[in-house]
Structure formats: C-alpha cells, structure tokens
Amino acid sequence: MISKRIIPCLDVRDGRVVKGVNFQGLNDVSSPVELASYYSENGADELVFYDITASAEGRALFTDILREVASTIFIPLTVGGGINTLADFDRVLKSGADKVSVNSGAIRNPDLVEEAAKRYGSQCVVLSADVKRVDGKFTVFAKGGRENTGMDAIEWIRTSVERGAGEVVVNSIDTDGVKKGFDIEMLRAVCDVVNVPVIASGGAGGVEDFIHLFHSVPGVDAGLAASIFHFGEVKIPDLKRELAKNNICMRLSL
Prior knowledge:
The protein is α/β, with parallel strands linked by helices.
C-alpha cells in the first residue's frame, strides 16, 4: 500500500511566510528558512513553497530565499509562483526544487505543461489549481485567487493531466483557512477524472479532518496544510501516529 503524504505549505510574500482566510487578509507568520528546516526535521513528507504574489505582480519568483530553503531541508520540495516559461522551470529546478508548480502561467499558455513535461518529465510538473464555486460550478481562479477565469475546473485539471502534469494540487478557495475540513466534494470530482497523485489543500482544522479526508476520498494521495502546522495546533508526528491508528498508511519516522 502506498503511504499517504503530509505536506506543510509555505506561502511566501516579501520573504516571509504569511497566512490568511479564503486567500484574503494575509498575516505574517515566520521565516521560510526556519519553518522549512523545522518541518524537514519533524516528519513532513514533502514541502510546498509558493511565492504567492509573483504572478499578480508580474515578476519572477524570488530564488535567493528558495536556494536557502532548499539547502536546509532533506525532503522533496515543490515550488511555485510566477512560473510562466520553460526558463522559469529551469531556474527554479536549478535553485533546488524537485518539482515545479504552475498555475496562472499554464492558464495563459496551456502548452507550457506539455513543453515542461517533455523537457523535464511529468514527475517534475505539478498543476496547482485554485478552485472556487461560482454559481454552483467549480471554477478556476488565477493570480493567487484574484482573477476568475470562468473556466470549468474539473475539465481544466483533466486536460492539464492529459498534457503531462504528473501531480495536481487542488486548492479550495472556499475552505482555505476556514479550518472546517477539506472540500470532499471537489476532491472526489477531481479524483474521478485523473490518474495522477492528487494533493488536497484548504480547510484542515485538526487531526479528524485528515482522517475524514483519506477515508472519504481514497484517491487523494496527500493532505496539505499551513496554519495548523505553523501555529503548532497540530504536530506532524502526532498527526501521522493518529492516522496510522486509523488504518491510514503513513511513513512514521519519529
């Protein structure tokens, strides 16, 4: 049985980790280097690093902080924010990322996913989809959740995987930071149309939410969260032990 993964997320703005609710009201949390090192040493299976304002500000991702983060951790690192070209993929991978997450760049240029998969392999290409319900329909948002594309999210994710995305992070804007559980309905809809790893993001409030996630949507490969880990509300070793007790396969390193 393949182990489920627990993944902390570092949303970075101006060199600091921040966190908000529904992608709004961002508050300062900590140094990304310090947090990354802590998670690497305390049971995280992987780490996600998002430069959350790069796309909205029309700039490239900050690589100096990324290099420092990459040099301090010993777990896989996925990096996103301002990824618009193959040159961006190259720069981020050379800065220490294991996988590159693309969102707005792929919306602007859907061929980017296919081109990157051909050059670097599908395992390096992660589609990050920011999704919100609009008039009852799962809809893709761009630029850090600021721009409604009007695109059907499930179809967008399906076609992106067909183009070569090797993994999908499903960011539910509706549940982000609310801490009332993952968006089970949305995740089921995604898992029904793809056969690559799916990472659930948005809504984790406690251990029970992860148990419910993996039992309710067996197709989900990983649970991603931010604030509950950043503020010590849930410690990853404790979470993994509880998941294992509930017959969810985990890598237990501590």
